[in-house]
Design a protein that fits this description.
The chain is an alpha/beta fold. The chain contains eleven helices and 30 strands. Helix content is 23%, strand content 32%. The strands form seven sheets. It has a six-stranded antiparallel β-sheet, with no helix packed on it. It has a five-stranded mixed beta barrel with strand order 6-9-7-8-12. A four-stranded mixed β-sheet has the order 14-16-18-19, with helices on one face. Helix 3 crosses helix 6 and helix 3 crosses helix 7. The chain starts with a strand and ends in an 11-residue tail after the last strand.
């Protein structure tokens, strides 16, 4: 089967760590690897093909770097110009596979879930494979062990009511239930036979497309036309934006699974968590003797059952309980654990006000490395730039700003108009306004420089990119 990893989404409920340009799936929230990398690892076993990744085009280079860090090659990557939910994303993958003559089983799963028991996952996959090979549309259900109001529920048939086993361990779906209130969720847990909808699926490519065409023909037809107009480059397919924009926004659940007569559920009792909020992160982490989860430089006194994350400063709590406190270089978020689902509403409000803190971190990642804003004013900006060994920025020019570069460590190869020269530690150079320039790292260790920009306009769109080894045409730094 082919793992189809959906790595879109902004993870706004985990703001301020998760940002639109570097969302939660690429963060190491539950260990030393990102959620995306953990997903890749748990699918690296015999009988599983290399993954196919669907991501936003803004995250392409993050995905490439995180794949390289764990030594895994994706067999293909589909770049979405913007999100249209899961049904169109999976339709594009299925259509691409059929166009290549590959009507294979697609294991569709988000990139940002935690699964603690991998043997249990493999066992459930075996059951799901048997059902999918019989033409069933399989979804994985998490046994509802406690009343949760943030999940959709699935009611499964039982073997003694005529709706039971399809293959041993798989059950016909009797009902999909929207996110319930607490009392109704508690009744589901008491009565049994209810599962949380995990958002993980297994089906054959042609079966999904048949069901999509029957129930949501507008999505199907638009995706067919989008694929015809999309541009492949090696193993990367850039989805045509103009056509894809016309595609209805809908999920696999609403578009297909709730309408098909072939939906079945395979129970997955494997320590699953969708890491959808700060309280769920508190759930999956080990607590100290006060019931606190503390990350970074944190001190507490007479404070209990809280989640505290410090990125750059000392954070202290005195005499408070059940809080979530998250500090980053440019933002602090404080919430009661019972209210963390409303963080998304806060982010929407910040977006409406044009606040940049929801878009990206002070540290911005690029295919050549990263840069961090250190200081800025009306006519100056200071950045700390890290260039990976062997990497280089685009050949570019600025119309409104000059730049001073000071090498902190490593070796820089500088191009400035018709000159090319090397700089080493403690050396510096000046890049005048409108000069054609490039920064490169010819060495074997990371290059670190301090860049001081000065001029009448310092926006990142003041760039004319003349040449770029990464094939970028957007107006972003470097």
């Amino acid at each position: 089967m082919i793992p189809v990893i959906l790595s879109g989404g902004s993870g706004s409920r985990l703001w301020p760590l998760s940002r639109k340009l570097y969302p939660k799936q690429f963060l190491a929230l539950t260990g030393d690897k990102s959620l995306f990398q953990q997903t890749l690892h748990r699918l690296s076993f015999e009988g599983m093909q290399p993954p196919l990744v669907v991501c936003n085009q803004e995250h392409r280079f993050i995905v490439n770097e995180q794949l390289a860090q764990v030594g895994i090659d994706a067999q293909s990557m589909l770049l979405e110009p913007f999100g249209r939910n899961t049904a169109p994303a999976v339709a594009m993958v299925a259509l691409k596979l059929l166009a290549e003559g590959r009507d294979e089983l697609m294991l569709v799963l988000p990139a940002d879930h935690v699964i603690g028991d991998e043997p249990a996952l493999r066992q459930a996959l075996g059951v799901a494979r048997a059902a999918a090979e019989e033409g069933e549309m399989v979804l994985f259900g998490i046994p509802a062990e406690r009343p949760e109001t943030g999940f959709g529920y699935i009611k499964a048939g039982r073997s003694d009511d005529g709706a039971g086993d399809l293959v041993p361990g798989a059950y016909r779906v009797k009902q999909f239930i929207e996110k319930p209130n607490h009392e109704r969720a508690r009744e589901f847990v008491r009565s049994g036979g209810y599962y949380w909808n995990s958002g993980m699926f297994l089906f054959r490519a042609s079966r999904f497309l048949d069901e999509l065409r029957a129930h949501e023909p507008d999505i199907y037809d638009t995706c067919v036309l989008t694929l015809e107009r999309s541009k492949p480059a090696g193993n990367v397919l850039s989805i045509d934006a103009d056509t894809f924009e016309c595609c209805p926004d809908n999920s696999i659940d609403y578009a297909v699974m709730e309408k098909t007569a072939s939906a079945c559920v395979v129970p997955l009792d494997a320590g699953w968590n969708d890491v959808g909020s700060w309280s769920s992160l508190w759930d999956v982490h080990e607590k100290n003797s006060d019931g606190n989860v503390l990350k970074g430089d944190v001190e507490t006194h007479n404070s209990y059952h809280s989640f505290v994350h410090s990125s750059s400063k000392l954070v202290t709590l005195v005499g408070v309980n059940d809080l979530v406190v998250v500090e980053t270089k440019d933002a602090v978020m404080i919430a009661h654990k019972d209210s963390v689902q409303d963080v998304k509403k806060l982010v929407n409000s910040l977006d409406a006000k044009g606040r940049q803190e929801t878009q990206g971190h002070c540290a911005v990642y690029r295919p050549w490395g990263c840069y961090d804003s250190v200081d800025n004013g009306s006519r100056h900006q200071v950045k700390r730039i890290i260039v990976k060994p062997g990497a280089q920025l685009s050949l570019q020019m600025h119309h409104h700003r000059a730049e001073h570069w000071i090498v902190v460590s490593g070796t820089a190869r500088v191009t400035c108009d018709d000159k090319s020269f090397l700089l080493t530690e403690n050396q510096s150079t000046y890049i005048p306004i409108a000069s054609v320039h490039r920064l490169a790292n010819p060495g074997k260790i990371p290059l670190e420089i301090i860049e001081v920009q000065s001029g009448s306009y310092l926006g990142e769109d003041d760039i004319e990119r003349l040449e770029d080894v990464y094939g970028r045409t957007d107006k972003v730094a470097g």
